[in-house]
Amino acid sequence: MSDLIEGFLGKSIEGKKSRMPAKLDYLQSATGLFLGLFMWGHMFFVSSILISKDFMYTITKFFEGSAFLKEPQSWLVSIVVFIVFVIFISHALLGMRKLPINFRQWQAYRTHMSMMKHEDTSLWFIQAFTGFAMFFMGSAHLFMMMTKAHEIGPFGSSDRMYSDFMWPFYLLLLLAVEFHGGIGLYRLCVKWGWFEGEDAKISRKKLKQAKWAITVFFLALGLLTLAAYVKIGYEHREHVGERYIPTAQIEMQYDVKVRA
Ligand code: HEM
């Protein structure tokens, strides 16, 4: 009965409002923080290809459990992707609550944005737009990584980029991720007062500078990484599907042959 009254009046019998919106906001921040920090790690792991194919291969096998298993297992990666996927979808569902859902709400937001000319209000629009786009593109990428974890590697990933013509998709995803993540982490700091210091105005200015620096850094790293995968994919186009054999293994096979 009390649920029914609250449902109609927006307040409980004791005249209190539900704490649920605050709890959902907290959850949205926590999942966003996790995903933002995860993406920093992800970009460094994926960019290991810039050092060498062998290095990217070693990182891939590490995530497949090479440190403690005789035979690395790609399903370990699938499990991690599944967990990230659940957090990703939860974050997207929580974010959807904030989107304008009809023309009137959209009109009110646009009028506010153009009247206020406040950068943070405009940034919110970029975040909402990129978030919407990522809901589809991020889900497609995560589903692919979960079901085809065994293909991840210097040649598998590069073939996907070039021969499967996935690079335009990754380019759009990269732009969406870097803008969304950068703005998201900045907004988290402002919302919860992290790094606020004595003067909130000065610290907000510094935070904004840091946000742009981080976005530019990860965009540059991401574009270089994308170019490296495309280049390898192009060079490997005649041998699509062939797995990468690390240099040490080739040398060992050669040694055995020479000795024989
Ligand atoms: C545990 C989960 C994840 C794994 C294992 C993973 C793995 C990978 C791998 C191996 C690549 C290289 C290309 C390929 O093989 O297809 C890649 C690229 C990429 N991933 Fe993920 N990913 C994960 C989660 C995410 C999430 C949540 C996002 C953002 C929504 C994301 C965004 C990207 C982007 C933008 C690229 C292109 C990077 C670049 O161009 O530098 N990934 N990912």
Radius of gyration: 23 Å
| CATH level-3 fold name | 3 helical TM bundles of succinate and fumarate reductases
What is the string of helix and strand elements?
Answer: HHHHHHHHHH
- The overall pLDDT average reads 93
Which small compounds were modeled alongside the protein? Answer: protoporphyrin IX containing FE
* CATH homologous superfamily assignment: Fumarate reductase/succinate dehydrogenase, transmembrane subunit
Unreliable stretches, pLDDT < 50, 5 or more residues?
Answer: none
Number of strands: 0
**Outline, from the CA principal axes?**
elongated
User: Could you estimate the helical fraction of the residues in percent?
Assistant: over 70%
Determine the N-to-C terminus distance.
85 Å
CATH C-level class is: Mainly Alpha
Number of helices: 10
Count of all domains: 1
Structural class category? mainly alpha
The main β sheet shows up as: none
Strand content: under 5%
Gross CATH architecture: Up-down Bundle
